[in-house]
Amino acid sequence: MNNRSVSIIIPAWNEEENLKKLLPVITKRQSGAILEIIVADGGSKDGTVQIAEKAGAKVIHCHKKRRAVQMNEGASHARGEILFFLHADTLPPPSFDSKIISESEKGAVSGCFQLRFDENRPALKFYSWFTQWKTTFVRFGDQGLFVEKKAFDQSGGFDESLTVMEDQEMVRVLKRKGNFSLLDSAVVTSARKYRRSGYLRLQLVFTLIFILYYTGAKQETLVHLYNSFIKS
After folding, report:
1. Which of 63, 172, 198, 225 holds its CA 20 to 30 A away from the CA of 149?
2. How many whole angstroms separate alpha carbon 207 and alpha carbon 224?
3. Where is 184: in which H helix or E strand?
4. What are the C-alpha distances in Å from 34 to residues 110, 112, 135, 229?
């Protein structure tokens, strides 16, 4: 491995329990290229901040609870040459940092991992099966997005006007900046939203939001749909 460094950016809001699992896993599975872990907090009321600080992460107190805003503010404080945006309920694979750097050395400007869920249900296996394909339409934030910091800054960052689909829009922008790589290994993300809202119901809602977004629906409509049908 060369001397390139990776900054991990985790947007969080009341993620105390997930950070207790995630932060030790990052320490155990990284190969030595992680320069810093930044938790971009959106005003948590639980022990998110305390857990993050105790684990040695840098906590950024963001001015708004919105994922795009939090990730941008986290990125603005990052010192690594590569940014790795990771959700608090998503666990990276072993040696994930060396895998990211390897792709970067091959010419990837950005990229992500494939996806698996932490629950062994046929429906979830089917949903995650699609993430092996390179199409933009199945690229979402819970797959762990990495990007050269220079390219991220040049792109203008995440669109802060978007409450949902900000990850899709970011991938579309980054693909215009250069090679986007899909890694062979997978992150493992929590199926908690599926358990709360129903496995088929939630996927149908996600699909509807996806279709409405690409047919020009307003953010207000998408957010209302999300809040109305997905249990928080």
Report:
1. 63
2. 15
3. strand 180-189
4. 17, 17, 28, 38
Distance of CA 96 to the CA centre of its chain: 14
Whether residue 229 has pLDDT greater than 90: no
CB environment 19-39: b (16+ within 10 A), e (fewer)? beebbebbeeebeebbbbbbb
Tally Cβ neighbours within 10 Å of residue 72: 21
H or E segment at 104?
helix 96-105
CA proximity to 54, closest of 8, 12, 23: 23
Q: What is the CA radius of gyration of the chain?
A: 17
**Angle made by CA atoms 17, 40, 143, in degrees to the nearest 5:** 70
Under the banding of pLDDT at 50, 70 and 90, the label for residue 1 is: very low
List of E strands, 90-144: 90-91, 110-117
- The pTM (predicted TM-score) of the whole model is 0.95
One-letter amino acid of 221:
T
Give me the residue label for tokens 């669109």: 159
Question: Which tokens sit at 4?
Answer: 């390139």
Q: Copy the structure tokens of residue 131.
A: 């993430």
Check residue 231 and give its pLDDT.
58
Edge-to-edge order in the sheet of strand 34-41: 58-61, 34-41, 6-12, 82-85, 145-148, 110-117, 180-189, 90-91
Planar angle of CA 230, 119, 21, nearest 5 degrees: 90
pLDDT tens string 67-117: 999 999 999 999 999 999 999 999 999 999 999 999 999 999 999 999 999
